[in-house]
């Protein structure tokens, strides 16, 4: 018997076509959105003008008069200033629901997000930007690449890192398929990222290398596994929490039923405490909605030099007296990382 049919609070575990599984203290309920909420979402998401948001414009203007210490503050403040209720429901969202019966409920309200990781949706056009939130309320990101199959693309890794830094989420770099033969430049690149302060873990589901280490990192966090398709995100999630039976490419190979590529995000409870999200592989990644000033800040090794350039509005491309370029010439900033910055800045594909 249900004594109190009033509101429950829960977390969205997955969702597709308007149906969401929500985790509550009373179990998992299959929910739909209340009509009023659906309408409000539709209105909020109707044709948005293209360009920077008002908030990012303000940040932009403020930047001119700020020095480096204030800049850190500016980025840290961003989360709370943008803490409005979301206009789309995403996996990881906390919601208030009205229970309908033993197994179903109605989502009545979405609570403001503490954090989120978004990307521009593939359905976006020049007139209409569609933002897709990969996961809400996450505290950590594991960016997964493979030593081979597919060959890693470190310029793409820099894009993932940029997006994590801009969302103030600490990324862990996981290089999976360590068992496969691969060239030694991968270890060299891994060393570069370690020197930048990122934790880099080599893993293999074949030899179990690094799995325990990865497992320990996840305790009491809400972690998103992201990275290109086929690198082994779902396989790693399965290796960490056996019994979750997440469909992977391997299963499909064995049954011959075609590729079981993950679609959308899905949250799983960890027996050691915390939550883990598997997400679909991302082919191309644009670091969007990041102002040029923010972009330079997202490259952690640029930070000591920011504010040192001759011109306050230096984009660090070919300006005179640029401290970043000087640091590249002096070998203090790695050239390949600098090239990644330029590519993202100029909007080049990869
Ligand atoms: N040799 C080797 N193969 C692996 C390893 N991890 C995963 N694989 C294989 O790589 C393929 C892809 O694995 P998935 O886990 O489906 O990859 P994914 O990143 O989830 O891919 P998407 O869902 O498409 O984004 C499967 O055939 C796995 O068996 C590993 O450590 N070593
Ligand atoms: Mg997958
Ligand atoms: Zn500069």
From TrEMBL:
Note describing how the cofactor binds: Binds 1 zinc ion per subunit.
Record-listed E.C. numbers: 3.6.1.-
Keyword Nucleus: no
InterPro entries: G_CP_dom (IPR030378), P-loop_NTPase (IPR027417), Ribosome_biogen_GTPase_RsgA (IPR004881), RsgA_GTPase_dom (IPR010914)
Annotated ranges, domain CP-type G: 127-285
Binding site for Zn(2+): 309, 314, 316, 322
Source taxon at top rank: Bacteria
Binding of GTP, residues: 176-179, 227-235
Polar residues compositional bias, start-end: 53-69
Job description of the protein: One of several proteins that assist in the late maturation steps of the functional core of the 30S ribosomal subunit. Helps release RbfA from mature subunits. May play a role in the assembly of ribosomal proteins into the subunit. Circularly permuted GTPase that catalyzes slow GTP hydrolysis, GTPase activity is stimulated by the 30S ribosomal subunit.
Assembly and oligomerization: Monomer. Associates with 30S ribosomal subunit, binds 16S rRNA.
The protein's name in its UniProt record: Small ribosomal subunit biogenesis GTPase RsgA
Gene (UniProt): rsgA
């Amino acid at each position: 018997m249900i004594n109190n049919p009033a509101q429950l609070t829960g977390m969205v575990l997955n969702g597709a076509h308007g149906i969401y599984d929500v985790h509550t203290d009373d179990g998992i309920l299959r929910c739909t959105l209340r009509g009023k909420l659906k309408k409000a979402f539709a209105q909020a998401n109707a044709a948005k003008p293209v360009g920077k948001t008002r908030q990012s414009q303000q940040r932009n203007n403020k930047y001119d008069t700020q020095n480096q210490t204030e800049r850190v503050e500016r980025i840290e403040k961003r989360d709370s200033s943008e803490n409005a209720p979301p206009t789309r429901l995403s996996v990881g969202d906390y919601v208030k629901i009205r229970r309908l019966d033993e197994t179903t409920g109605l989502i009545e309200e979405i609570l403001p997000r503490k954090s989120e990781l978004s990307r521009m949706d593939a359905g976006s056009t020049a007139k209409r930007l569609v933002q897709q939130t990969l996961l809400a309320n996450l505290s950590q990101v594991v960016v997964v690449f493979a030593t081979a199959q597919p060959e890693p693309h470190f310029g793409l890794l820099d894009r993932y890192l940029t997006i994590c830094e801009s969302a103030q989420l600490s990324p862990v770099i996981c290089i999976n398929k360590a068992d496969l033969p691969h060239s030694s430049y991968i270890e060299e690149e891994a060393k570069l990222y370690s020197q930048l302060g990122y934790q880099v873990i080599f893993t293999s589901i074949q030899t179990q290398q690094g799995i325990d280490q990865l497992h320990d990192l996840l305790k009491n966090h809400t972690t998103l596994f992201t990275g290109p398709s086929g690198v082994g995100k779902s396989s790693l999630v399965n290796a960490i929490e056996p019994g979750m039976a997440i469909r992977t490419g391997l299963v499909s190979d064995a049954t011959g039923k075609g590729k079981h590529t993950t679609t959308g995000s899905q949250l799983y409870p960890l027996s050691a405490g915390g939550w883990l999200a598997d997400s679909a592989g991302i082919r191309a990644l644009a670091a969007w909605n990041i102002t040029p000033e923010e972009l330079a800040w997202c490259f952690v090794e640029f930070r000591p030099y920011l504010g040192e350039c001759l011109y306050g509005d230096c984009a660090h491309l070919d300006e005179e007296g640029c401290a970043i370029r000087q640091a590249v010439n002096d070998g203090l900033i790695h050239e390949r990382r600098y090239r990644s910055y330029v590519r993202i800045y100029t909007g080049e594909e990869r």
